[in-house]
């Protein structure tokens, strides 16, 4: 996707000031080294004093900064932002909100394409070496290797907002799928749990994967041959062996630790790496810290969530499901003889990337739909201010980045990608439309369907899907939340929207955001930021 470069005044003017000061210093050094110079008759120094030059440059910098601040706060209009309507009872002065949003976006949300590009390239190199080492090591643990070994496929897939050009604030978090290769003697029979009426709505988007013999294998011999694999990675559900996400996660984390020990020495000159296990519910996180001898321009500490994935076909993967927002008890208490450790979630990140590319091809040049999504994330973060930890976590789950992206795609696809109305001049109108759509989903419709697995879906735009997904029931992303939680979220969303100018003025300073970083509760739930 295309990116737009704009001048960053916070960097430009200090750079100009420092460069001019350096030139003045160099001039005085060269002039002083040229030998003694004649003194004026009155005994005064004929050269312009260095102190005066530095003071003048500093005063010029302060004057320009003050002029920029006054312009951002009090300018009565801007050619980039047009008029916008009011929303419910919250009425904003027409120029005020647009200018505040533009300033907030430029100073707090927008990522430097240069820094983001360096960060993604660095992550790609480190993860690539780790995955190649993991593939070469084979399978550790009770299954020594060979025909019944679970192993890395050898590639990795970069997913999430950093790779879809709508990440905000800092390029310090990434999601990477690591596809796994099943043994040749093992095949999977996935099944959607959508039609199960006895299950809670939170599980209707999950899948179970029973083991089955590949074509041509004998039943009795196959059961005996694959017993080591079934004992290490499967649980029993209704008399059949099913692949278990927690057991696969446990193997995956142990295998990553061994692979990291293999490549750690070769990475010492570039960075320091460590792995934080995620337990039996969350994928592990690879921490990449800059080396002390690294004098590159992008010395950032990054966290990379490495997600084990089982390929279903056509770019769709099974991953560990997100933790349920409410406790469901031990596995034996699930209806229908099911167990929570046999459940899997579905990842359609490749299809969603294709859908965003399809939208970009049909949207007018300079369309602001991704910018609206970034500002909607900022609205979510501002709305979490002042909440207790439990309420913050619930707020972050209901309005997760994936929910917001799904809402944006639903608005874009509702009547086809519009040819007009998504340019910068209508930014406030489009942001208001997204807030209204989310309010309707939470209160009136009480549903927000998956952009790929919803009714009708977007199969024509993203290409073919595996048969098990085409036949699955539509996935409602809001089904896991009760009516009270949805009403509270909608009420706070509207309150945050109405107070947005005041919130932007209070929390819009970079120094405040450095002291109090925005909540990242959706990433603390053990599931990728941009996945359901």
UniProtKB/TrEMBL annotation:
Family matches, as SMART domains: Mab-21
Gene Ontology terms: cellular component: membrane
Keyword Nucleus recorded: no
Keywords: Membrane, Signal, Transmembrane, Transmembrane helix
Domain of life: Eukaryota
Membrane topology per record: Single-pass type I membrane protein
Localization annotation: Membrane
Transmembrane portions of the chain: 48-64
Domain Mab-21-like HhH/H2TH-like: 369-448
One Pfam match: Mab-21_C
Protein family per UniProt: Belongs to the ITPRIP family.
Name of protein: ITPRIP like 2
Native source organism of the sequence: Mustela putorius furo
Gene name of the encoded protein: ITPRIPL2
